[in-house]
From TrEMBL:
<dbReference type="GO" id="GO:0052621">
    <property type="term" value="F:diguanylate cyclase activity"/>
</dbReference>
<dbReference type="GO" id="GO:1902201">
    <property type="term" value="P:negative regulation of bacterial-type flagellum-dependent cell motility"/>
</dbReference>
<dbReference type="InterPro" id="IPR029787">
    <property type="entry name" value="Nucleotide_cyclase"/>
</dbReference>
<dbReference type="InterPro" id="IPR000160">
    <property type="entry name" value="GGDEF_dom"/>
</dbReference>
<protein>
    <submittedName>
        <fullName>Diguanylate cyclase</fullName>
    </submittedName>
</protein>
<feature type="domain" description="GGDEF">
    <location>
        <begin position="9"/>
        <end position="140"/>
    </location>
</feature>
<dbReference type="InterPro" id="IPR050469">
    <property type="entry name" value="Diguanylate_Cyclase"/>
</dbReference>
<dbReference type="GO" id="GO:0043709">
    <property type="term" value="P:cell adhesion involved in single-species biofilm formation"/>
</dbReference>
<dbReference type="InterPro" id="IPR043128">
    <property type="entry name" value="Rev_trsase/Diguanyl_cyclase"/>
</dbReference>
<dbReference type="GO" id="GO:0005886">
    <property type="term" value="C:plasma membrane"/>
</dbReference>
<dbReference type="Pfam" id="PF00990">
    <property type="entry name" value="GGDEF"/>
</dbReference>
Amino acid sequence: MDRARRYKEPLSLVLLNLNDFKKYNKTWGVTQGDRALLATAEVLEDCLRTTDIISRSGGGQFAIILPHTDLIHAKLVCQRISAALEATPIDSPDGGTPPLSASFGTALYETGKSASQLIEEASRVLYFAKMQREEQSSIK
């Protein structure tokens, strides 16, 4: 954030939450859940630049810092990650686990915004994305 502020460069934060990860663990087991997390990490490494920062923040949630990235491009990154996750098979002994999907929350750093404000904003967007997904699931 200091660098983005100093050089007036865009910086985006993405929060990624694997959809229904608790249910995934409960249904398929913790070992399979660990495989899903490893597959997610590999997708993130493949989809992101070496300058991007990835952190697992707990459960099925990851935080991604995208330097030199505005919100429009952050959303394109989210779309690329989403497509890659859905196309990634998760190795399992019986081959029966479903593909992964994720919800995303994005926020753009602006001068004067604190790290906690950036996280809070991305968390709020993630919450609404998850709520919208649940509403769409219940309509089908």
